[in-house]
Amino acid sequence: MSATADVPARTTPARRRSGSWDGLILLVLALLAWQGMHLYVGEAALASPVKTLTFLAGFLRGPVFWGHFAATLAAFGWALLIGAVGGIVIGLVLGERRFAGDVAEPILAGLYAIPKVTLYPMILLIFGLGMSAKVAFGVIHGIIPIILFTMGAVKTISPVLLRAARAMRLTRRQTALEVLVPAVLPEILTGLRIGFSLTFLGVLIGEMFASQRGLGFLIVNGINLHNVPMTTGMILVIVLFALAANGLLLWLHRRFGGPSATPEHA
Fold it and tell me: Which residues does UniProt assign to the signal peptide (predicted)?
């Protein structure tokens, strides 16, 4: 038993080195593809990696970027909080109430398939310009996948767990917190990963249409001013932020929701 348990520990450094080399190779390939695309489309459409990084090195030293970054982060944080909490709660309720869930699922799937651009005029009329509109854009993008993942996970939960909860006379709140959430945690984390990306996308689009603050606004402003390094640099910042955040969520999924998170038997 101990010899078998020691095998992953001995192979971990090798796996880490292999992963580091894979990441380095992907980075080099991405930079080469970026440079090749720059040579193909020209300076007027896409800045080169060197020019973009040079621009960012100076732009990130000033207060302008960090003010816009803070605006995006604040709107995204509120949108993700509302979407995650609301999506999980609604998903748990609809998943536990099978009839309501069966009725709501096709409706939610239909709403999710609607192009969100058709809702922008209505959102702007309701919330106006500014933070509230950006948060609303983010929430409508991200909340439905979280609801669907959570609801689907609750529907597939073992009936034995629910019968045990009823036998122990647990309240609905206790059943949700002590039985449903731990059982569906992997699916909830998967839904949060997808909801994270879509919420971030919604906030950025909201900043492009309904704000004068944020990274999305900087992209549009760079396009309007024909400032290609700014546009390319902001896109690079957004990509790096999204990759870092998704990497963190993937680590949390593996740590708390993956197979390795289950306790080992003696």
Answer: none
